[in-house]
Amino acid sequence: MKQQILDKKGIAKAVSRIASQIMERNTRVSEIAIIGIQRRGDWLARRIANIIHDEKNITIQVGILDINLYRDDLQNRAEYPVVRTTNIPFNIEGRTVILVDDVLYTGRTIRAALDELKDFGRAHRIELAVLINRDGRELPIQADYIGKNVEIGTGGTVVVQVHELDQNDDVIVKEVL
Q1: Alpha helices in the chain (DSSP H)
Q2: Quick one: pLDDT at residue 68?
Q3: What is the largest CA-CA distance in the chain?
Q4: Candidate CATH numbers 3.40.50.150, 3.40.50.2020, 3.30.1440.10, 3.40.640.10; the one for domain 10-153
């Protein structure tokens, strides 16, 4: 069984709300950096940065983080993990970093991202923005900025599609019967 919880307009509204909240909380917007987690968080990060640019006429530095080699279940996954690009072409030392992901579920992806980020320096503060915040946390991690909260219980999956990768913008919950 599938249920659409956000369509293109819903995603745009949620991303816009996240960008607005980031601007409200961070009075020195020019000092933040936004880093998206591969594969969909990086596209959402770019969208947030574009909204802030359009609103404040400030170019926000955007980076991309691939956490695959930092996962705590790496030994249980495929023999050869798919390693993508990490690209953070700026110094995070002393800056406020907004980490962006599509779905916050167990918290393990964010833990891996935090482990990798420390290899790039010591940020002043790290905040977390997620399009979807769902139930099922295994680690004490929470988002600072949330597009939508979803409770689906065990056995369900949240699938986020972004136009840049999937030629479609939507969020679907697939429930296992």
Answers
A1: 8-25, 41-56, 108-117, 163-166
A2: 87
A3: 48
A4: 3.40.50.2020
Using an 8 Å Cβ cutoff, are 47 and 17 in contact?
A: no
The residue-averaged pLDDT of 146-167 equals 93
pLDDT tens-place string over residues 47-57: 999 999 999 99
| C-alpha separations of 173 from 79, 140, 170 in Å | 29, 23, 10
Share of the chain above pLDDT 70, in %: 92
- 46 preceded by a cis bond (ω within 30 of 0): no
The DSSP bridge pattern shows strands 156-161 and 125-134 to be: unpaired
CA nearest to 22, candidates 125, 153, 137, 109:
125
| Residue 77 clears pLDDT 80, i.e. is over it | no
Residue type, 91: N
